[in-house]
Amino acid sequence: METSIPVFDASGGAVSERAFDADLGDSMLFRTMKDAVVQYQANSRVGSAHTKVRSELAGHKKKPWRQKKTGRARHGDRRSPLWVGGATVFGPRNARRWHYRLPRKQRLAALRSALAGKLQDGEVKEIKGLSMESPSAKTVRPLLSECAPHGTSLILLASRDEAIWKSFRNFPRISVRTADEVNAYDLLASKWVLAQEGALDVVLERVGGKKG
Length: 212
Fold this sequence. Notes:
By secondary structure, the protein is of the alpha/beta class. The protein has helices at about 30-45, 105-120, 135-145, 160-170, 185-190, 200-205; strands spanning about 1-10, 15-20, 125-130, 155, 175-180, 190-195.
C-alpha cells in the first residue's frame, strides 16, 4: 500500500509528510485481528474470583435442629447453600487458567492488518527527533496536545528508552511500547499511533511487509 504519513518535530510543529510504501496485504483480516484481540485479553485475565464450597467454610457440622417433630424443614448443617453465609454452588473458582497462544504467523498477520487499517484511516503519525536525556513530562505535553488532542494514544518507540517511557507513563490513556514487542491489540486499542522515527521500519521487518 502507498500512503503518506504526517511527520512532526519533537520540539513542536508539523514538519512535512513522509511517503510510506509497504506490502501489508490486499485485504483486511478482520477475523484474524479479532482472534488476536481475544487472545491478548484472555491472557491478561487474573482469574482471581473464587467462591467457597462446603469443605472450605469454617464452622461446625452440627444440625441446627433435630430431624423430626419441629414443624420446620429438615437441615443438615449451616454450610448448606440454602443458608445465608453458606457455600456457593457452581461459583467461579480460581483454579481455571485462561492463558493460551495463537500461532506466531497468525499473530503477525493480525499485526500487519492492524497497521494497515491504522494507515488507511490516517491515524499514524511519525515523531522526528524524539530523544531525551532525562524524563520530563512537561517537555512531551505540548507534543501530545498537538499530535493527539483527543482519544487514546500509543507511543511506538524504535528501541527501549527509559527516559521517554517515564515521560509518557503518567498521562491518562497513553501507552508506550517498543516496535519489537507491539502487537495487534496495542494498535487497535489506541486511537492514535505516534511512532518514533524508525519504529515503523522495525515493525515492517517483523511482519515481512518491508519492500526491497
